[in-house]
Amino acid sequence: MSLTTDNEQLTTGLPTYTRQQLALRNGQDRDEIWVAYQGRIYDVSRSRLWRRGNHYEHWAGQDLTRELDKDAPHTANVFDNFPVIGLLK
Question: Which residue has the higher pLDDT, 3 or 59?
Fold first, then answer.
């Protein structure tokens, strides 16, 4: 019997999406507003800060890992407020 970490349990069974599929969830082409961070895709649609598909200089429908790790004024814990809806291929 193997033990899984909390992170593994969160991602087990989630669908995977390509960067092209993620790009369609930018809040303009469709109603969904998704962003990727460290391989996980988060639905940020309910956030008023992402309502128009962007948050300051960050745009939805993209992998924001490099941008956020480089210059975000907050920690990755900000994503704890949003559901993980998939994994980035």
Answer: 59
